[in-house]
Amino acid sequence: MDESARLMTVLRPVRAGNAFEETVERLLQAIKLGLVAQGEKLPPERELAVRLGISRVTLREAIRALSDAGYLDVRRGRYGGAFVTYAPPEPDAGHLREAVNEMGMADLSDALTFRLAVECGAAQVLAMSRPGQEQRAVLVRRLADVNEAGLEDYRRLDTAFHLSIAELTGSPLLATTCADARSRVSDLLNAIPMLQVNLDHAAVQHQAIVDAILAGDPDAARRAVAEHLEGTAALLRAFLA
Amino acid sequence: MDESARLMTVLRPVRAGNAFEETVERLLQAIKLGLVAQGEKLPPERELAVRLGISRVTLREAIRALSDAGYLDVRRGRYGGAFVTYAPPEPDAGHLREAVNEMGMADLSDALTFRLAVECGAAQVLAMSRPGQEQRAVLVRRLADVNEAGLEDYRRLDTAFHLSIAELTGSPLLATTCADARSRVSDLLNAIPMLQVNLDHAAVQHQAIVDAILAGDPDAARRAVAEHLEGTAALLRAFLA
DNA sequence: ATTGATTGGGCTAGTCTTAGACCATTGATG
DNA sequence: CATCAATGGTCTAAGACTAGCCCAATCAAT
Q: Are residues B98 and B80 in the same domain?
């Protein structure tokens, strides 16, 4: 934990891969977070390439790879586009072990710690900021969405709820960081079976988070998020054992 | 705050610039955070290029730019290297306004919010983790370093103290995120005059942070960090007005 | 003074990436 | 059924980036 260790932290690779690989990751993030739901399509290639700051050629390579991997269905012509075909796999301990083996235990622990820190931080900041009527309404709406969701939409709307907390702080940096943190564990979360007991428990914890934020109580918000995420982490560990 | 807004969050540019620009930013981060102090030198080009995952040509362009801008002094031959010549400018309201104008008020607010969230999150996580003897010793050591620092070393050791909290959580993701958050405001912080009153105040707050972490009290840790950073933000605002 | 190891300086051939133009397909609409 | 706008498919020339190699400078050790 000396200076040289800190130097290593900052002098890490400038780029996580080539443009193609990074683009695949980014699109996969949008898909797995449910930002483009099954049946919907990505923006047109020309527009998307501009948004991502890459050439159309590179974007098309990435889309081709995701299409080959079964995440997208690309259709030509007017009203065509790259349609999302991905549906999260059925919860299963095998998938979970597979996902954990792919990332390694160290990275798993890193990802869970990271998520805990940034989501607690976001909730706390939002609670401190005394959100206005409009923001409160969005938060309550997202909570209701999760509670009304069927099993198919649950993960997606749960993600939307969690991300909206960071978004409502008004900090784009915080929003993208929370999205990043969430996407690092999304495959793991998808592997956890959705038992009614757990969903009920989660609903209570979600309510506690919203209550604390609406009450402007950062300590309670922090605690509620920590409890919720620790609960999820415990489920993961139990399911792994 | 609807789905399309969330999509924009994720479908942002894949790369923040070309390899040259990103490399300049990264080196500047290491320099401004004081990870390579004045008079010290960067690792040799060949080694650094590997660490940063770029070619030596691109690295050399970046070093050249920083050398031209007065941050580095490059010397050839054995025992040569790229020596850091940068010293933070004297605190001054002019510098501050300049820095703020460069980044814009929206980005400033974003950066401050971001830092508040991630540093509070890190402190909370560390407090929850019940750090071992060795970690506690590092934390106490860093605190002592700040308190014993002269005016010249204060900023650098203050940075080291703050970053060590994130590092001690054992999460590389969290450590790099906190380093990123800090570097986004370092120019602003450098512009604040170091009055003894403020330093004394900061010392008390630093102590409160360490006490809370050592006591394993995440709420107190969160509160202490929030108070400390809010104090800094208040100084900034006051100095801007 | 000579040597040798270490480090920055520079060149070249090849690959990755981009910008922009043009082609092909689709399906709603008149 | 012909049209047309939106969208994916393809090609090319130019620029960005890389890997690998060799040169030049410096200075401690001998």
A: no
Q: Check whether B1 has a pLDDT greater than 70.
A: no
Query: Considering only A48-57, A91-100, A147-156, B177-186, which range has the smallest mean pLDDT?
Result: A91-100
Strand D within 7 A of A76 CB: yes
pTM here is 0.96
pLDDT tier at A223, thresholds 50, 70, 90:
very high
A38, A63, A84: which is the final residue of a domain? A84
Q: Indicate which CATH number applies to the domain containing B51.
A: 1.10.10.10
Q: What is the DSSP letter of A6?
A: H
Please list, in sequence order, all residues whose beta carbon lies within 8 angstroms of the beta carbon of residue A132, skipping any fewer than 6 positions away.
none
Q: Which helix (H) or strand (E) holds A84?
A: strand A81-84
Both A44 and A69 in one domain: the answer is: yes
Q: Which domain holds residue A127?
A: 93-240
Could you give the CA distance from residue B67 to residue B73 in angstroms, rounded to a whole number?
6
CA distance A108 to A240: 12
In a domain, B166, yes or no: yes
Angular region, A39: left φ>0, alpha ψ -120 to 50, beta rest: left
Residues in reach of strand C, judged by a CB distance below 7 angstroms, are A 18-20, 49, 53-58, 75-80; B 15, 41-42, 44-46, 56-57, 60, 63-64, 74-82
CA max distance for chain A:
59
Are A79 and A169 members of one domain?
no
CA atoms of B218 and A220, how far apart (whole Å): 11
Are residues A180 and A224 both part of a single domain? yes
Range with the poorest average pLDDT among A52-61, B93-102, B172-181, B203-212? B93-102
The Cβ-side half-sphere exposure at B236, using a 13 Å CA radius, reads 21
Tell me if B35 and A116 make a contact (CB, 8 A cut-off): no
Average pLDDT value for residue range B134-138: 97
Task: Report pLDDT for B99.
Answer: 87
Which of B116, B174, B226 has the CB atom closest to A114's CB atom? B174
Is residue B47 domain-shared with residue B115, that is, in the same domain? no
| Closest among B108, B91, B92 to B233, alpha carbons compared | B108
Cβ pair B62, B23 in contact under 8 A: yes
Confidence grade of residue A94 (pLDDT, cut at 50, 70, 90): confident
Residue A75 three-state SS: strand
Backbone angles phi, psi at A157, to 5 degrees: -75, -30
CA distance B105 to A237: 43
Protein-contacted positions of strand C (CB under 7 Å): 4-12, 16-21, 24-28
